[in-house]
Amino acid sequence: MAACPYHARYFNWWDPEWPKGMEGALNPDVAPRMRGVVEKCNFCFHRLQAAREKAAVRGARDIDLSDYVPACVEACPAKAITFGDLLDESSNVFRLFEDGKTFRLLENLGTAPKVYYRSEREWVRRLGEEDFAGKAERNG
Amino acid sequence: MDRHLVARGAQRAPFRRFALWIAPWAVMLVLGAYAIYLCLSKGLNQTNMDNRFAFGLWIFLDLSIIALGAGAFFTGFLVYIMKRHELRAVLSSAVVLGFICYSGAILILMVDVGQPLRAWFTFWHPNVHSMLTEVTFCITCYLTVLAIEYAPILMKNRKLKDIPAFLVFEFELHKVMPILAGVGTFLSFFHQGSLGGLYGVLQGRPFAFREGIGIWPTTFFLFIVSAVAAGPSFILLTTWLVSKISGKRLVTDNVSRLLARISGILLIVYVLLKSVDTLGWLNKTVPEFGLSGMSFFLWAPFNVWILFLEVVVFGLVPALLLLAGNKQLRVGWLVFSSFLVCCGILLNRFVMTIQTLSLPTLPFDKFMLYSPSWQEVAAFLFVVAYGVIVYSLSFRYLRLFPQEAGAIRLQGD
Predict the structure, then answer these.
(1) In a mutagenesis test of the A interface, which of B40, B48, B51, B366 is the best target, namely the one with the most A β-carbons within 10 Å?
(2) Do residues B193 and B210 lie in contact, with contact meaning Cβ atoms separated by under 8 Å?
(3) Subunit contact A13:B50, Cβ cutoff 8 A
(4) What domain range includes position B311?
(5) Is B216 helix (H, G, I), strand (E, B) or coil?
(6) Contacts (Cβ under 8 Å, ≥6 apart) of B48
(7) Residue B361 · residue A5 · CB < 8 Å
(8) CB distance A11–B362 less than 8 Å?
(9) Which of A14, B46, B298, B401 could serve as a FRET partner for A126 with CA atoms 20 to 30 Å apart?
């Protein structure tokens, strides 16, 4: 947790709780993590597992890409999130990456995060690499 | 009422006075035990740590006491490997201090780990790429070594000596002490280093990140050198403190001066390495990230003064005092210098832990400070009280300072 500059890891400080009667809404493929465990987004790994199992049933080794998208991508009403394989040059995500409007947070640190952001505005893209001095100024 | 347990020839305060000395520490111990119980039963929500500040007072405590406890392995190394036999005068005390520091650190780590019942996972499912794995293995093994080294000191107790089997066991243990000293040195080098390496490999935390040799960042080496420099100082300081509290001269001045000289030599090496490392970090590592080095010191209260305090006031000044003045200065000055050295090592571990996490990383982050909850403070004090009680009992009932026999009384007892 201390190593991640993106604060993308979360510690379960409390036991998971949900209102009575909501047990049925829990995802049967994902165990609620107990108190004392660190977790982070894993791009819905359980969905990837399901896609792999589906492929295995078909006798295929590779998954059908349409079988695997993280839940947030599927649920986003504005379709603001695109998920895919950047190494696949025919993918939508590769096409978006190519137009020069993508950036990563703290790219200058060399942490190579797998999440890219997009903006038409250059000053927004520059924010991703901002120096500490700029932040000090804004924080007073 | 406990005269029969006190070592022959040693003069100790009456039991009532000793009990009065122990009482406040025992209260602190009980309060700390309650806080630890709360943390273990209810979880780490009892602390003021959060997702951003996951390293807090306890990690600072762990790093600090492990660094101060380095005196144990280093004194063993000097006595058994380097044959500096005059340091036998403080060897037993150093072993007890080391045992207290390492057992205290492991105890607080058990509370801090979040899932104490799964603490064994780190041994059974080790992440071989993690510096922390090496630390866990080494400090556990080294605590075992310290426990074995503590055993013969314990068996020298007047009552335990009456049991022949213990006498034989103690005699046999003495034969393997040089081997244990060597093993302790090996283990200590690695875990002291890995504790530093832990920060140096934080690529996403440019304040802590350091380049280095192979897989070892410079902090790996700096932590080793700073710990071995502070270890003798901590022994000098604690010996002086015990001497003042008990009112007895425990070691001769030449032992204090030798400890001061060793600490001074190592500290000057550390200050030199630390300065080179800081300059390299400011002028090479940080600019390569596209950042300005001094921008890390724009955030109050961690301005440039903290760097100055660490390197000059708690580094260069005591190093020169210990090195240049170890023959001319009074022992009191050497003890004061040792106190500065210990403050320096605490400040260094504080900076690496707290300042690293306080500084913002993301563009929209704020500078953050954290203050520990009472449970964290009480658990911290538990370790302090535990240390004082174990040391007090050891001092009272065991012979920690061989030169104490026939010692000069300094004050009324």
Answers:
(1) B51
(2) no
(3) yes
(4) 49-370
(5) strand
(6) B56, B370, B371, B372, B373, B376
(7) yes
(8) no
(9) B298
Cα A90 to the center of its chain, rounded Å:
21
Q: Which residues of A touch B299 (CB under 8 A)?
A: 136, 139
Residues contacting B111, CB < 8 A, separation 6+: B36, B39, B40, B58, B379
Task: Name, in order, each residue with C-beta under 8 angstroms of B217's C-beta and a sequence gap of 6 or more.
Answer: B196, B197, B199, B200, B201, B209, B210, B211
E strands of B216-286, at which residues? 216-217
Of the candidates A3, A7, A14, the beta carbon closest to that of B43 is on: A14
Tokens 């394989």 correspond to A85
Q: What is the complex's ipTM, to 2 decimals?
A: 0.85
Q: What is the pLDDT of residues B23-75, one digit of tens each?
A: 999 999 999 999 999 999 999 999 999 998 989 999 999 999 999 999 888 99
When scoring B53, B203, B282 by the number of chain A Cβ atoms within 10 A, the one with the most, hence best to mutate, is B203
Contact A127 B205 (CB under 8 A): no
Task: Tell me the CATH number at B150.
Answer: 1.20.1630.10
Question: What total of structural domains would you count in chain B?
Answer: 1
A137, pLDDT greater than 80: no
Strand partners, A9: A40
Which region among A113-122, B167-176, B270-279, B280-289 has the lowest average model confidence (pLDDT)? B167-176
Q: A9 to chain B: nearest residue by CA? A: B51
CB neighbour list of residue B168: distance below 8 Å, 6 or more residues apart? none
Mean pLDDT computed over B260-286: 95
Contact A109 B292 (CB under 8 A): no
Greatest pairwise CA separation for chain A in angstroms = 61
Q: Is B21 exposed, middle or buried (0-12, 13-18, 19+ CB in 10 A)?
A: middle
In total, the C-beta contacts within 8 angstroms joining chain A to chain B are 94
Query: Does A38 contact B114 at a Cβ distance shorter than 8 Å?
Result: yes
Please count the other Cβ atoms lying within 10 Å of the Cβ belonging to residue B226. 28
**Is A11 an interface residue toward B (CB < 8 Å)?**
yes
**pLDDT band at residue B411 using 50, 70 and 90 as cut-offs:** very low
Per-residue pLDDT at B410 = 43
B221: distance to nearest CA of chain A, Å? 20
Answer left, alpha or beta for residue A127, where phi above 0 means left and psi between -120 and 50 means alpha.
Answer: alpha
* Structure tokens belonging to residue B81: 């490997």
Joined together, the tokens standing for residue B14 give 């009456």
A10 close contact with B: CB closer than 8 A:
yes
